[in-house]
Amino acid sequence: xxxxxxxxxxxxxxxxxxxxxxxxxxxxxxxxxxxxxxxxxxxxxxxxxxxxxxxxxxxxxxxxxxxxxxxxxxxxxxxxxxxxxxxxxxxxxxxxxxxxxxxxxxxxxxxxxxxxxxxxxxxxxxxxxxxxxxxxxxxxxxxxxxxxxxxxxxxxxxxxxxxxxxxxxxxxxxxxxxxxxxxxxxxxxxxxxxxxxxxxxxxxxxxxxxxxxxxxxxxxxxxxxxxxxxxxxxxxxxxxxxxxxxxxxxxxxxxxxxxxxxxxxxxxxxxxxxxxxxxxxxxxxxxxxxxxxxxxxxxxxxxxx
Length: 305
Description:
Elements: H1 10-13, H2 34-43, H3 45-58, E1 64-68, H4 74-82, E2 87-92, H5 95-107, E3 114-118, E4 132-138, H6 147-156, E5 158-174, H7 187-204, H8 216-222, E6 226-237, H9 243-260, H10 266-275, E7 292-302
Parallel strand pairs: 1-2, 1-4, 2-3, 4-5
Antiparallel strand pairs: 5-7, 6-7
Helix pairs in contact: 2-9, 3-4, 9-10
């Protein structure tokens, strides 16, 4: 799962929106979403590269980097590039996604220091041979019912002085102006509200779900970690959109329509249908005003030496 809580981009996961996931509520077939997860992470690579560059100033010469909820390994392989002296381990509950991660590592020439580990989080981390110098959880924590317990488990897998970095929160992504010339202005703001409700349902339905205020620095501190820091990173792909950005937007809006169909106002449903109709001049396939603008937030903390 490497996702995006942005409920609109996947990977925010792939929430309907960017929470970046979208599934029929909590039953997510990550393998089926592999192509979407890869294309999304590739499109957002500049954002991830900025985040990893920031981490590299704090985490110098890590021996082992663990990507928790790695999905198809796009970010895992970026770690291998940014930290050429590190061994990278991609951990995920979906073996088909890890097959893709390993293949990507081979294509990029980093397979000699790239490994995979399949199993359910956080328990599978007990199988680590060595503690991690950097443990990265990119939009995977919010798929675990008890996030506080998961953070504690993550922290226990760190070497003394090791860093835990979680990617959670940010801002809902934007793809279109407020007034797009069809339907009522403010479509994306209304979709955001519905997606927040969807995300709350998804969280509540997870096994062992525990309601938790999303005060990440405090939660990291409660896991026994120190020196919590937070930094947000921007993805800004202005109009006119590239083919990849356009395909990404179509994927996101398609998932929103399919996942939230029963909650949509009739007017907004009709607008979405037009946006997704390749034959419509006002569709995402043809619009000149389509862009991608989003913010992702990284929170870090260190295990005391």
